[in-house]
Amino acid sequence: MGAQQVRDDFAGLYGAEPEGVWSAPGRVNLIGEHTDYNDGFVMPFALPHVATAAVTRRDDGVLRLHSADVEGGVVELRVDALAPESDRNWTAYPAGVVWALREAGHPVTGADVHLASTVPTGAGLSSSAALEVVIALALNDLYELGLQRWQLARLCQRAENVYVGAPTGIMDQTASACCTRGHALFLDTRDLSQRQIPLDLAAEGMRLLVVDTQVKHAHSDGEYGKRRAGCEKGAALLGVDALRDIPYDGLDAALARLGDEDEVVRLVRHVVTEDQRVEHVVALLESGETRAIGPVLTAGHASLRDDFRISCPELDLVVDTALASGALGARMTGGGFGGSAIVLAEAADVETVTKAVESAFAAAGFTAPRTFEAVPSAGALRVS
Ligand code: GLA
């Protein structure tokens, strides 16, 4: 849905033009999975799919929320009555951001909001982060809060962790807030230092496909939290602040120290090798060896499947089929247990790979996947 439509729908709903319109994208993660809550490295880029919000300030303590994507009318809340984990609906994301801003001392006294999103939900493409960031950016502008993008990302993460109740890391919100067109974001999640890495696969005759398996996932259920708790246990047993602090060449010794804590061993091995894979991919991209990232992506999938154990048959089928039909690399992306996989392929092989995956899904009796090409797009911005 276009920004003008969102503006017009706002005017129809609330009887006046909005003060402005903002957008914030979903993301796909190239490499660096489940590293963000271990203070590690990630490398997402923004999708062309965005959440768009038309917003006007209010000074009477009322927050009115409406979405073009959800049945039902305007939801009216009072900003001083917002309470963590009180809301299980989509409204928890925008309301959570208002709560987080106010809790941090920012004088947000209400808003009228109309939202529409083109980011697929439950697909591991950060539809919720897009909703959070678009609201945060709009309120930052309208209330002249002067917060920087990384600060908005932190507040959005807090909204998701505390208000929504999902124990996620900082990657998705930072990606939505800080990515730039034509680049992947190399992010150190410990201090949020960033480097924009140029990524123009088409110029080199390649494509990156996102294959949405249509298997829905959610992070507020237990498995994500269990992995996170396991990683924290590993850090505690090894006497480090976070798994990020284990040097790559000290991994074997660290695993030996964990002895027969098999599950923790697997989690630690994934996180440490995944950080190393992110740095490897950055080095390859910066030295122009783009095709060589394929096997690194594929190794990342094996680690998520075998060590972190968060893949599923549909994701494995995408990866195996894509590789067997000529892809350069493939891996699940995002939190896991469903959602999407990415496939790096020569442009000339895209059709063969796509058809092979579709046929494999049909043969396995799985719901048909949805495939689209992902091009690094703009981060959150004011549209009008
Ligand atoms: C989800 C979370 C992120 C990150 C990924 C896994 O997308 O929101 O913080 O942990 O899973 O890399």
Describe what this molecule looks like in 3D:
The active site is at 172 (proton acceptor). By secondary structure, the protein is an alpha+beta fold. It has 2 domains: 3-196 and 378-382, Ribosomal Protein S5, domain 2; 200-373, Alpha-Beta Plaits (2-Layer Sandwich). Helices cover 41% and strands 21% of the residues. It is built from 11 helices and 13 strands. The chain is globular, with a radius of gyration of 21 Å.
List keywords for this structure.
single chain; 384 residues; GalKase_N; Ribosomal Protein S5, domain 2; 41% helix; 6-stranded mixed sheet; Alpha-Beta Plaits; binds alpha-D-galactopyranose; 2 domains; Galactokinase_bac
Beta-strand content: 15-25%
Low-confidence parts, pLDDT < 50 over ≥5 residues? none
At CATH's second level, what is the architecture of the largest domain? 2-Layer Sandwich
Radius of gyration over all CA atoms, rounded: 21 Å
* Class of secondary structure makeup: alpha+beta
Count of extended strands = 13
Mean pLDDT: 97
Write the layout of secondary structure elements.
Blueprint: H1 3-14, E1 20-29, E2 41-42, E3 44-57, E4 62-67, E5 75-78, H2 92-103, E6 111-117, H3 127-142, H4 149-164, H5 171-178, E7 183-188, E8 193-198, E9 206-212, H6 222-238, H7 251-258, H8 262-286, H9 293-308, H10 313-324, E10 329-333, E11 340-346, H11 350-364, E12 370-373, E13 381-382
Parallel strand pairs: 4-6
Antiparallel strand pairs: 1-3, 1-13, 2-7, 3-6, 4-5, 7-8, 9-11, 9-12, 10-11
Structure at a glance:
It contains eleven helices and 13 strands.
